[in-house]
Amino acid sequence: MATNAPAAPPSTFVVDDDLQVSKVTFWTRLRRHKLAVAGMVVLALMILAAIFAGQLAPFDPNFIDNGTAAVPHWNGTPLPPCFQDKELCWGHPLGTDEVGRDLLSRLLFGARISLTVGLSAVLMEVLIGTILGAISGYYGGWVDYIIMRVTDVFLSIPLLPLLLVLTAIVAASSTKASLSFGVIVIIIGALSWPTVARLVRASFLSLREREFAEAARALGNSDRRIIFRHLLPNAVAPIVVQATLDVAGVIITESTLSFLGLGIQPPTASWGNMLANAQSNLSIAWWAAVFPGLCILVTVLSINYMGDGLRDALDPNMR
Amino acid sequence: MFTYVVRRTLQAIPLLIAISVILYGILYNMPGGPLAPYLQNPHITPADIERLKHNLGMDQPVYIQYLKWLGHVLTGDMGYSTSNSEPVFQAILERVPATLELMLTSFVFSVLIGVAAGIISAVYRYSLVDYFITTLAFFGQSMPVFWFALMMQLAFAVHGIPLPFGYQIQLPSAGISSGDTFDFGDRLAHLVLPVIVLSLLALALYSRFMRSSLLEVLGTDYMRTAAAKGLNFRTILFKHGLKNALIPVVTILALSLPGILGGAIITETIFAWPGAGRLFYNALTQSDIALLMGYLIMVAVLVVFCNLLADVLYAWLDPRVKYD
Questions:
Q1: Contact B288/B87 with Cβ under 8 angstroms?
Q2: Does pTM surpass 0.90?
């Protein structure tokens, strides 16, 4: 059983009809990419930390430390005890933020937000992008023309300014609190599907001409069955790679929005909004600026390495 | 070639109209509308608001409003910016030089370094230098721009990097200059941190792209032929390799623009850079609809133009591409 390379060059990904063989080669190839394996391990630890944030966090993420009896009592102004004197940071492994909340605990709970926003927005993006891209590539003609023009429009508007405007409108429409987790996910997901749609369309354009697609058609299968049961499984590889890299992108996007005050709203901790006030306290509390960003960097880096490894494993021609 | 350029330009027009319709539709839903800044003013009565709405044509159907807006934009009138108390077009144009200073410096910087790093990386593939460059590129791609900006400020502005003999590197972290009089050294010092921050992502992107593009070319038959003819490596690399490898990179340069513009908003905001990106962010916090719309349209025009430029350049540089 040999792995057969794709006949048509447009998609250089392994379009393999024999999934059993490609699964084995996939894992061997992925294991060879050491940094991808390291990325997966780090990411797994991050996910575990996010799941068990409640057990791991030394404090409640919203608990405000007023200082203990041993140290001067702090009533909220101007700076928390930990900012005034590092000796007063006892019990807070990474210090506190500008309100006096434990940084480590907030980082752990922030991991939940960042990772779930990343995964959910990408899930949404992949669903929309795959369905539209599949329809576009399979049917062609005017349906394809319209869908592709729509992706042109979406790809011509820079994402960040558009996201900022949309979130600002939602924030102003009712209250800032309406910028909940779900709203952020929907806005990001609804705007980032065009890349996936183009990718899926490209694979479908070549896949629909292959013999097995013709055979499926000749057997009288419905279009929907051909799209989802016969063609889609063969187009999964590029989608998986793109989706992985997009999770990293969404985590950065969400943290940027939250940093600018137009993402996840406090008191809910997200890595981005933990940095919102970091700039003004940069000279007194470096830890409040360093650690949240470090979490973003490490997570995004792990995901990017993982995506790189997946690409290598799924597509040996891309190296 | 000429007909190709004309046809592509004509295709861009419906695209831009569609973009403007979508943007107009989004901003039309901004709560309070364009008169929001007046609503809080105690000297303006509800009757005044009604009169203003009527005079400005805000009581007409959306599509009429849109068409009127479009007509005005085509004559260079983008409305009045409430947060800056001046016409939108003027407000943006005033900030463009600062943004250009930042973006062009950063563009030149990242193209030079990025392309050079990519070439070195490809030529010395799997060497220590290659690993170093690709690792840095991965970090650059994974770095949240705003946090990198904070870290640069922390290192170079708050603390300063110590040098031997008691000197230290300390750089300004806000604004475009210290005083009103022009001082080249001072302007340059203000430019360093924002340019580094804005360039990072582009640098990473260009070097990775250059590397894979050159690697692909190095593996081709015509490169082997050139080597077989006995040409030295330098000639092969520069005359045959780079000429071909740079073609897709040129496309990426043009296509990376939207990302750089997004990065410029953040960079300008954090470094208090008096450019168009910061203007946009301020307009956002003050619900200045006319300015938001004007900025987004101008950026969209720029992006569409750059995409066009990328395609045309590609067709022009690569005789193998058929443009019909």
A1: no
A2: no
